[in-house]
Amino acid sequence: MISLENVSKKFGTGVFAISDISLTVERGEFVFLVGPTGSGKTTIFRLLIREIIPTQGSVVVNSFDVIKLPNKKVPDLRKMIGVIFQDLKLLHDRTIIENTILPLEVSGVKRKEAAARAEEVLSQLGILEHKDKFPVQLSGGEIQRAAIARALTLSPQILLADEPTGNLDDETSWEIVKLLSDINEKGTTVIMATHNADIVKRLNKRIIELKAGTVVNDRKGHKVNHKSSEKDEKEKPAVTEESRKSTETSSFAKASADKQNREQSETDPKKEEHLREKDKKAEDITSDFEEALK
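^ that's the sequence the OP posted. Answer follows.
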């Protein structure tokens, strides 16, 4: 279904985002694409939807040769690929159902039919009751579900999820990953880029690890005891909707605070030193994934 052969991408700065990558993803697979920031995960996604063209090598998605694909055929390629963007790309001046309808309208689906399809997907993801709200009125997990709903409206064969749990707490992150797993079990090929080593460890899925733009590992993940996992899930204390929203809001607030701190650190040496320590912790991500691959 998806084939990259000896693919490299060099940007105008002279830096290679990926270098001589070869990999194949079969129809119906669930694949984790892991690695530190800058390792090439998002570049691969951009190549698959033909947002960029490789400097060398071949990219094939189903019957489409992405490099040779005429511009007029690009919409056909993108209809079969749903994308959950890292920054979500929800329009904040439109309601959830208006955001969900958008891909259908762009594809020429009639308004009534598009609205029915959007409501169907929102219902499947458990957020139909929020259809008339704006993104700012939803919790982090609900916003992520809205982004997934929009990606699913055209019933894509392939779903690309770029860091879908990046700003979510552990409980909500696991809920989102289980949603993606359920979607995969219905036949959709799912490729999920992530930094979350804990999630990778919990699922027995294929793992492709990138480092400095090259594939350094490509194999099955750590096998889990499904019975134990199910037992652990049942024994977890119930999480109320109110407490879940509160935790998600705190997660997003923390992310915003980190961004603000970075902006202020330019004039505050102590904060700059603190952020350097946080960045050092981020470098440990690679070792976490190496542990997950054992």
